[in-house]
Amino acid sequence: MAALQQIRDDVLRRARSEYLEMPGLRLTPAQAQRLWGLDSHTCEELLTTLTETRFLARTRDGSFVLLSSRM
After folding, report:
1. What residue ranges define each of the domains in the chain, with the CATH number in brackets?
2. Total-model pTM
3. Which DSSP string corresponds to 16-70?
4. Comparing C-alpha atoms, which of 26, 28, 29, 57 is closest to residue 45?
5. Quick check: 14 and 46 in contact, CB under 8 A?
6. CA–CA separation, 12 and 37 (whole Å)
7. Which residues of 50-65 are buried (b: 16+ CB within 10 A; e: fewer)?
8. CA end-to-end distance (rounded Å), the chain
């Protein structure tokens, strides 16, 4: 169980890092899934977590952006 949590933490860290390095990054769920090599369920959990913690915001077109760069 600890190994699974470590993997989730690593993916969260990587996603945050990508958005911080490229503040204008806009990803659809499908693009995020491909970029981070995740299955759809895991990607959905990741995007939900990042949105609920107010790191990301979902735009009207369904893309995810850094909350501070939301249009």
Report:
1. 2-69 (1.10.10.10)
2. 0.86
3. HHHHHHSTT--B-HHHHHHHHT--HHHHHHHHHHHHHTTSEEE-TTS-EEEGGG-
4. 29
5. no
6. 13
7. beeeebbbbeeeebbb
8. 39
Spatial distance between the Cα atoms of 12 and 18, rounded to a whole number of angstroms: 10
> Both tokens of residue 44?
């959905």
Cβ pair 30, 42 in contact under 8 A: no
4-61 per-position pLDDT tens digit: 677 788 999 999 999 999 989 999 999 999 999 999 999 999 999 999 999 999 999 9
Separation of alpha carbons 47 and 32, rounded Å: 9
- Check residue 20 and give its pLDDT: 96
Q: CB–CB of 43/28 below 8 Å?
A: no
